[in-house]
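Troubleshooting log. The previous structure file for this entry was overwritten by mistake, so regenerating from the original sequence record. Sequence copied from the archived sheet and checked twice against the printout by T.R.
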Amino acid sequence: MMWNGNLPFHTAIILDGNRRWADGKGISRKDAIHYGIAKVEEILFEWSERFKDEYSTIPFRQLTIYALTLNNIKNRPQDELDEIYNAFSEEIFRVKSSGEFDRYKICVKFGGKRSSLPQNLVKAMDELEMLTKDHASFYFFIPIAYDGNEEIRDAIERSTLLKNQLENNLYFPDAKPIDMMIRTGGEMRLSSFMLWYIGQAELFFTKTLAENFTYNEFVSLLKEYSIRDRRFGK
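Regenerated output below.
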């Protein structure tokens, strides 16, 4: 079967509702972190391959998934943050060893206030970026310790006000403008997510909690995206 319609080049997802889902299932917040990571990898690896098998194309060339906000770091208990940091570090080690990013030729880029993160996690992030820097199939952008306003302020501080220099100093200079943004969990706000890139994006909000978000619902949203009339002011 061939896909009939447009597809986003750059898709961005806020997987919201992880903790509410865990509370409803009687799952500890610590274990919920690992379920959240598993959902990200399901989208990145399994859904993209399934879509390719079904429609002979891939559903995105660039994918951004929110990992951790600066507000999370400011407002959550330190023991919960430590569990998140440890889970991220362990998973980076696992995927480095598994070769999944090599197999799928995915280039990984992290962006955010790295000074707000533990050094061992930053080291693991740097190593994964270096390991995947030559991959070209598609980009996977991970905002972590991230705030969109902070990104723009940081870029201005590192550059003059010339637009091209500003873009080169963003956390994700390789990112194209976001075409499609999906937020799960029922909230209808951006939460300072990728503000520089999201101005012309088509926005989709679903009440489905993160772990209940399925491939079929994702494809349904892609179908809705494909029939939207993106005029860009014309």
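The beta strands are 10-14, 62-65, 68-69, 106-111, 138-146, 180-183, 202-205. Archived copy saved in two places this time.
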